[in-house]
C-alpha cells in the first residue's frame, strides 16, 4: 500500500454487524417479557428501524428538515414503531429507562468477526479512521464496546450534513 497514508471506513454494516447486534438485544427483551415474536419478527423490527433512519438521513441530506443528532432520530423512529399496531406489545412492556437503553443499542454494536484484527493490522502502516452519520459520542462508545481501533473519528454531524451528501462532506 505504498503511498497510502490513511484509510477511511464506513461503520454501519461495513465494520460492525448492526443487524445481528440489534436483533440480539430485541430477542433478550422478548424473552425477558415473554413477548410472542419470532427471530424473524425481531429481524423485521431491526430492519424497519434502520429503514426509518435511512429515509430520514436521505431526506435531510437532500435539504429536508430534521435533526442531525442520530440518537434523537433513532428515538423518534423507535417511539413511532412502539406506538404502531405491529409493535405495540413491545411498547407496552418498555418503561422510559428500558426505551432509553434500547435506543442506545446503536452504541453497543459488535464488529464483524474479522474487523478488529483487520483494523489493527492496517493501522500498523496507515492511519485508520471512520466517517459515519453517527454522532461522535455514539461512535466513541461503539469503538470502546467493539474494540475498534480508530486513530480518528469523523462524524457527518461535524460537517452539518449526512452521507450520502458526499460533496458537502468532502469539500
Report on the structure:
It is a single chain. With 171 residues, the chain is mainly alpha-helical. It folds into two domains: 6-14 and 111-170, 3-Layer(aba) Sandwich (Rossmann fold); 18-107, Orthogonal Bundle (DNA polymerase, domain 1), CATH 1.10.150.240. The protein contains eight helices and three strands. It has helices spanning 18-33, 39-61, 70-82, 88-93, 96-103, 115-122, 136-146, 166-170, and strands at residues 6-9, 127-132, 152-155. A three-stranded parallel sheet has the order 1-2-3, with helices on one face. Strand 2, helix 7 and strand 3 form a beta-alpha-beta unit. It is globular and about 55 Å long. It starts with 5 loop residues before the first strand and ends with a helix. InterPro entries: HAD-like_sf (IPR036412), HAD_sf (IPR023214), S-2-haloacid_dehalogenase (IPR051540). One of its GO terms (molecular function) is hydrolase activity. This is Putative haloacid dehalogenase.
Give me the secondary-structure topology.
Blueprint: E1 6-9, H1 18-33, H2 39-61, H3 70-82, H4 88-93, H5 96-103, H6 115-122, E2 127-132, H7 136-146, E3 152-155, H8 166-170
Parallel strand pairs: 1-2, 2-3
Helix pairs in contact: 1-2, 2-3
Short description:
The protein is built from eight helices and three strands; from the N terminus they run βααααααβαβα.
Which key phrases capture this entry?
S-2-haloacid_dehalogenase, globular, three-stranded parallel sheet, Rossmann fold, 171 residues, 2 domains, 8 helices, DNA polymerase, domain 1, hydrolase, Putative haloacid dehalogenase
